[in-house]
Amino acid sequence: MLHNYFVYIMTNEYRTTLYIGITNNIQRRIAQHYFDSQNAKKSFAGKYNCIYLVYYEGFEKPNEAIAREKVLKNWRREKKNKLITEFNPKWETLNSQII
């Protein structure tokens, strides 16, 4: 199954801040977050150094990804933590593992 859209969660070094986003090119988006964290710090992810990918889901259609992003953003932190832990138990950085 080909996934053209991704909902993803980025965090900072200490795993204290979460950023949830959607993209059609996850590697490019990770690079943008990193660049912003090192330079302008204009975005939320850049300002809080959310440069570590810890969770992602793939979707075929953009409206499915947008709907899922909205759901996740409305969750309490505890529920987001549980989702990440079930997907990535050690909260390892997945930046280089995603294609």
UniProtKB/TrEMBL annotation:
<protein>
    <submittedName>
        <fullName>GIY-YIG nuclease family protein</fullName>
    </submittedName>
</protein>
<comment type="similarity">
    <text>Belongs to the UPF0213 family.</text>
</comment>
<feature type="domain" description="GIY-YIG">
    <location>
        <begin position="3"/>
        <end position="82"/>
    </location>
</feature>
<dbReference type="InterPro" id="IPR035901">
    <property type="entry name" value="GIY-YIG_endonuc_sf"/>
</dbReference>
<dbReference type="Pfam" id="PF01541">
    <property type="entry name" value="GIY-YIG"/>
</dbReference>
<dbReference type="InterPro" id="IPR050190">
    <property type="entry name" value="UPF0213_domain"/>
</dbReference>
<dbReference type="InterPro" id="IPR000305">
    <property type="entry name" value="GIY-YIG_endonuc"/>
</dbReference>
